[in-house]
Amino acid sequence: KDITDAVTPGSRAQEDHMARLAAELQVLPCSPTCANWLLYGVQPKSAKPTLRPGYCKGKVHQRRTLGFTGRRVLVSRQWSNKTLSDHRTDRKAWVRALLALSATGDDQAANANADQADDTDRWEYELASRDDPDVPPVHVHFLRKIAERQQWRAQLDAAKEQLQQQLSAIDSVAA
């Protein structure tokens, strides 16, 4: 797919934007073997003596595609040095902080702090077999998980909305 097939610049500003995007993509690494890693002081994978930064032949760097083909961004753990569980922990901390900010009473704040307690020493885990009578069928399990996620999302959205209202009230008082 070419961006030029779908988009034609309608103004000088759009042409300038496409030129800036093309210039940025000219120096952004497109893959672990891209020569543009040399611009950032990183040895590309399977490097050869003929590699020259800014002259990668990948489609990502071509003006007619403007990065729409290929893998434009490496996975976040290669940039941030975090694993997926580290990202999950960060998201959980962010949600807990947001819920603690939106809590209005001491009981809600106490509940949020109680949820953070580590209860792993109270439980013993073992794999369940298919014949275990305590384990619901797979479709029931998935439907429960979906409902749980929807409930979490609703609570998060409500907390965001409440926090937004509190911030607007503060802004209106300050103005």
Number of helices: 6
- Cα(first) to Cα(last) distance is 51 Å
What's the number of domains?
2
String of helices and strands = HHHHHH
The shape is: extended
What structural class is derived from the secondary structure elements?
mainly alpha
The tally of strands reads 0
Helix content: 40-55%
Low-confidence stretches: none
Main β-sheet: number of strands, strand sense, barrel status?
Answer: none
Radius of gyration: 25 Å
Task: Record keyword descriptors for this entry.
single chain; 175 residues; mainly alpha; 2 domains; 6 helices; 52% helix; extended
Short recap of the structure:
The protein has 175 residues and is mainly alpha-helical. It has six helices and no strands. It is 52% helix and 0% strand.
